[in-house]
Amino acid sequence: MRTHTSPSFGLRARAAWLAITVACASIVPFGLAVVPHPVWAKSEGDVALPPPAPRPAQRPQSSPAPNPPAGAADPVAQPSSRSSAPAVAPAVARTERLARINAAKSWGYQLNGLKIDEAARSPYDLLVVDATTGLAADRPFQPGEVAALKKKSDGSRRIVVSYLSIGEAEDYRPDYFTAEYMTEDAPDWLMHENPQWKGNRIIRFCNEGWQKTILGDDDGMSVYNSIELSPLYRLIELGLDGVYLDRVDVYSEVKKECPDAEAKMVAFVARLAAHARKKNPHFMVILQNAEELLEHKKMIEAIDAIAKEDLFYGVDYSERANSASYVKDVLANLKLAKAAGRPVFVVDYVKDRGKIQDAKRRIEAEGYIPYIGPRDLGKLWLPGINF
Predict the structure, then answer these.
(1) 8 Å CB contact between 71 and 120
(2) Model confidence, pTM
(3) Which end of the chain, N or C, is less surrounded by CB atoms within 10 Å?
(4) Residue 55's closest CA among 166, 164, 177?
(5) Domain containing 157 — which CATH number?
(6) CB neighbours of 237 closer than 8 A, spacing ≥ 6?
(7) pLDDT per position as a tens digit, 104-157
(8) What is the rounded distance in angstroms from the CA atom of residue 281 to the CA atom of residue 301?
């Protein structure tokens, strides 16, 4: 599922980005260079890549951040993820991550229109949000807001992770997409628009330029300038517990552009996980869909959990029941995760009360954690009320 946002929001975001870009370009002081293009190492066989449109280096804003919502911890008081990660053996960190994620017995999923105070009051042990464009306030999350979401009403700890698509580029994300892509030469990793999701464009994920766009350099800094963090490291800096990877299944759509696409996608996810945990060994990676890749031991080792959309209903984007053969194949793959100690979270998008109860019952019967919600993910449904 891609992040859904209104066309007006996308236009506002792009217009705001262009305004900031022009303003920053006009005030870049002497000695602060505009980086002309990202630098990344090419793997053997890569062709020369025209880079994305350059962006001017920007100084961190000196103006105070907006006040966090009531109940949120003071962002200044939060430990910075820029400090050195605690020394912990990878095996120990993995054990601790898996213990925490396996303790989650409920989950919620909202990618746009989220209000911090409402989400913080929800009963969920795990919450999936979009830390870049998911707030109703039309701005990225603040560290204090992430801290507020981590605390449940009873004082216990909640796991909070952020959505990140690594198989499609969304044109309303100014951290890696500029309006120039629509009028000038686009980078080689950018392909056609997904006809089912306006504003989402298929990616040659195997292209080193795209992978570096998401990961950043060895220190997690943007490959477009030396000041901003990469999309992945920005989530770590916010204090999120992990990342929720979408469109991993794009590998099946770009096999011509990415030979041996299946193995290359597994390698990309493993690379992302290792890069994130270099900074925070306890950073979680949750895979959405692409459950057939669980046949690769390397994928199992890279992730901490898997989420599956449309298990029993709506694989064709309707509310119709899925075929028995489809369900059987999916369950066979999901069992690989369970056998490896990785919990399985499932979301079915149904509104009919009978189908809601049936989906919930069948998900729980498999030992998975259910969530039922609207397909646009614009509202957080609550157990006992909505399902």
Answers:
(1) yes
(2) 0.79
(3) C
(4) 177
(5) 3.20.20.70
(6) 80, 81, 82, 143, 229
(7) 999 999 999 999 999 999 999 999 999 999 999 999 999 999 999 999 999 999
(8) 14
